[in-house]
From TrEMBL, chain A:
Its main location: periplasm. This is Carbohydrate ABC transporter substrate-binding protein, CUT1 family. SUPFAM superfamilies: Periplasmic binding protein-like II (SSF53850). The keyword Heme does not apply.
TrEMBL record, chain B:
GO terms for biological process: transmembrane transport. The keyword Transmembrane helix applies. It comes from Rubellimicrobium thermophilum DSM 16684. Signal peptide: none annotated. The chain crosses the membrane at residues 12-34, 73-94, 106-129, 166-185, 206-224, 262-284. It holds the Pfam family BPD_transp_1. Residues 69-283 form the ABC transmembrane type-1 domain. This is Carbohydrate ABC transporter membrane protein 1, CUT1 family. It is a multi-pass membrane protein. GO terms for cellular component: plasma membrane. It is found in: Cell membrane. CDD domains: TM_PBP2 (cd06261).
Amino acid sequence: MTFKSHISAVALAAASLAGLAGAAQAWSLEEAAKPYAGTVVDVVFLDRPGYNAIREMLPEFEAATGITINITTMPYENALGEQVRDFVAGGDLDLALIDLVWIGNFAENGWIVPIEEFTSNPDLVDPELDLEDFFPLVLNAFGAWNGVVYGLPIDNYSGLLFYNRCMLEEAGFDRPPETWEELKDVYGPALTGDGRYAFALQSKRNETQSADSFARMLWPFGGSFLNAEFRSNLNSPESQAGLQFRQELMAYMPPGIVAYDHAETVNALAQGDVAMITEWSAFYTTLVSPETSKVADCIEVAPEPMGPAGRKPALGGFSLAVATQADEAERAAGWLFIQWATSKANAETYLRKGGVPARQSVYQIPGIAEEFKFVPALVESWQEGVPEFRPRFAEWPTISEIVQEWGTKMMLGEVSIEDGAREIGTRMEAVLEDAGYYSGEKPLVQ
Amino acid sequence: MTARVRRRTILAFLGPAVTALAAVGILPLGYAVWKSLHDFNLTRIARQKFVGLDNYVAVLGDPVFWAAVGRTAMLFVIAVPIQIALGLMIALVLHRPGLGFWKTLTRLSLVLPMATTYAVVGLLAQVMLNQKYGVVNQMLGWIGIDPINFIGDPTNAFIAVVLWDIWQWTPFVALVLLAGLSTVPPEIEEAARLETKSGWTILRHVQLPFLVPSLVAVLILRTADTLKLFDMPFTMTRGGPGSATEFIAVLIERVGNRQFDIGMAAAQSIIMLAITIVLARLYIRLFYREVR
């Protein structure tokens, strides 16, 4: 090789590198979206603060990209059914809104696309995507199935203890309970009386019963739905202890607690009728707003109490993934929207508009923890949660229905804790048997 | 030629109705029957397979299904006789001569409960019967009755659904029976009134025979309505607490739309359809007589 050709090669390499660097520097949402301007992306949203925040931010995205996000808003109860029917029928939805307990269902049926399809395409991937900035537990639980990431966390919750500081102080407490035992044995008797109650545990017969009530009492006591062999673990001493604890705790809850959904529970705290509730972080805004809470100035937030097995707080939330049934342009446009909505750059705006981002970096911004009182408790909770708080496989909706029915019967005393747990276990195993987990047809993944 | 024209005319008149009926009734029914013979779950569509009558065997041996049927029958047995009794009383009052303006006003107000969407009726009940903030408990408090846990107690929740059903459907029964009373020839009724002052005798021997077709219609419609009662209990109690208000339609919706087991839900629906048809035929055979 001559000196001249050497120089040429080096110059070429340098030019290539400069070109690449330039390309990386030059990546912009506007440029990436140019080929997809005019594309309409169909997605299901819920009527909750996080989605309203995205909706408020959306004009900026649509102006920058020319992509239209066509949102259908529906209640949580309908969102799964509508999406399943749409995917089975090959409908219009281009994105999937996935509650963490639906991810196994959506992934196993091939309805959603792994994000690798987009992150491997430099034209579509934002150099600032930084997947490691997501709380690992949240990204894994909400967006991943069997080691493959499909969706990015969009609407993120952790169970938190919301309490009425004024009521606690009146009763002589200067801090919230640290353990469930303390809540029941010390705070319970002191805060219950004269038509007011120490605690309310939302337990209505729907996902609230199975997730917010039943599962919430299993994990901190060392229990779980399934053991390593995927057999029922509900009659283990730990699970039984948790369920028995729930029964005893009812002495300090309002009567008719099996009819309490999120609205009734949050309202009970907001009206000053109960002193403490364990609820999703998303209800923070409702509880601290004087328009919706009589005791807004008294509301404080702490992590959920610990049980003998640790904190293990309730974990819930949604990711957005691209649907397999979308065409090429819709997939790319949909991905750009997901990436933008969950980006580090937008996390603070999203938080200020009422959403709860899953980006670690936003919670490190000075002043955020002081401004949003739920932040320290939320960050702590996301270090200690369990992804399989509710099993995330396709069979969960069926099992959840079983838990809802028998969990409510247990609370009403229509069946003993032991018999109820056995009944759920038998039915749950029948569902898993039918699905093929015991024959080895399906891997033991939850 | 004339016969051909007539056949064409007949086809032209009947065709649209038959096509519409086939499109919205017969084809979906056929599809439901076909799916009921399959293991067809939307969440494992790849494993769909023909299973013959397995779904029917499973449904007929399922205690949860029969418990829901029993609950539905209980609702019917309690609510419908009360609706008929109250409806008949209202109809008889409205049938009497005089009080023109007030009768018109009553007739209009009777339409309101029926015109209210079922789901809204359930949502209203959920709010009104709330133990802490509901208006019903507030009113009970005015007369010294402690708040009642309507929605959170299994027995109370069932009673609440019964009462709400009675509130919504008694006016319908009243209007149908009022229409039935208007078919009684006035001269017969007047002659009967000259013969006796006993209202019961007139009702039993003069009016009731003319009311039989209306009563059979009420029974058939209310049976079908009760068997498919879904919106109100779903929005009010969602079948709970426990299974206290899980009526058959609520159960079928749960299996089909929440467990996505379309095959099983279709089998349950076909069985319920069969029960409805048998009951309707039974009513007609036992009660219906042409009034001559």
